[in-house]
UniProtKB/TrEMBL annotation:
Keywords: Membrane, Transmembrane, Transmembrane helix. It comes from the Bacteria. The keyword Transmembrane helix applies. This is DUF4153 domain-containing protein. The chain crosses the membrane at residues 92-111, 117-134, 146-166, 186-208, 220-240, 252-274, 286-305, 317-340, 352-373, 393-413. It comes from Rudanella paleaurantiibacter. The keyword DNA-binding does not apply.
Amino acid sequence: MRDEIILNQNNPRQLERLYRENRPSFKVAFNELYPQLANNPLTEGWYQRLNFEGEDTTWGTPAERLFVIIAALLAGTLAKFPDLFSLDEEFFYTRNIGFIVFPALTAYFAWKKGVSAKVIAMVAGIFLLSLIYINYLPQNKVSDTLVLACIHLPFWLWSILGFTFGEGRPTDWQSRLGFLQYNGNLVVMTALLVISGVLVTAITINLFRLIGVNIEEVYFGYVVVFGASALPLVATFFTQTQPAIVNKVSPLIANLFSPVVLVMLVVYLVATLFSGKDPYHDREFLLLFNALLVGVMALIFFSVTGSHTENKNATQVLILFLLSAVTILVNGVVLSAVLFRISEWGITPNRAAVLGANLLMLIHLFIVAFHLFRALTRKSDVSLVGRSIALFLPVYSLWSAVVVFIFPVLFGFK
């Protein structure tokens, strides 16, 4: 390695090849040779590149770490409200689970990005009005509109988080792509933290059992509750302070899983034809189809909006196009099943909500597939696919607001 570096010290292409073939050995050999290679602009640049420690080793500022700790403690305290104030757990958590997570995340990005006081006041007002509204809806355990409002409220709060992430600029579609990329990174980091937390929990509980101390009740009642409440915020902190590491993981996972999911989806659809399952009459099967649809759409979006989108090769674009085409087929089946159920048994809040969501997803999928096809045939750039995804996000936000705030009144709180 040393001889090759000396031989190619003025050849940047060959140095890059040597570096990529064996990075650790290259760094060791180069640093040993650096004194005799000095006074060469090319080798000086390589030395700075190989020994730069900067941002990769930082874990945020002390103020940022303090902010995360305080916000995490507040989120955990909020999650303990039913115990602290003898509240009904089902009533509290079904309506307020989103307020344990999203205000802390929103406050973090508002503080980190220096969002204007006007935007902060508007976001705080939306959160407060949403909190009051959802908790004053009539308590009726068989109310479909109440259940729909509780399910869609986190999506509405998620969109407010995205608005804050973009610093209150509603027309900035690139910030929406950044928000989607952040969500992909957040999912990966949260999964890693959950795995770590499960291992730590198992080890801790069993260690105390060995000495005859049972800490399960206290541990799950406080450590797990506070840890779970703080998890999204802590994962967010890692994604923002270690972007060089995290940004490489989620695109890699998306690229690895896209072909696997494509094959699985095709096999699943073929197997469905012979299984006797009928989404037109089987409500649970229809719900499963919807969940599958949402998951695959999320995979497509995160694959497109991952880092280095412009460098996707033709194979990756082809896989995403085929995946979107198959997903359109799944969406068509779901949509036809919903329309069939409406024609047979009439409109209900649940059917109206599913119908609206599937129509929006179908339109969006057609737009994304169209741009993927154009990118595949080299008639446009892959970046336009990301733009088409970002521009449609406010439509989902508006629909979630309709289900949360209008459906209960429209259907008489039934």
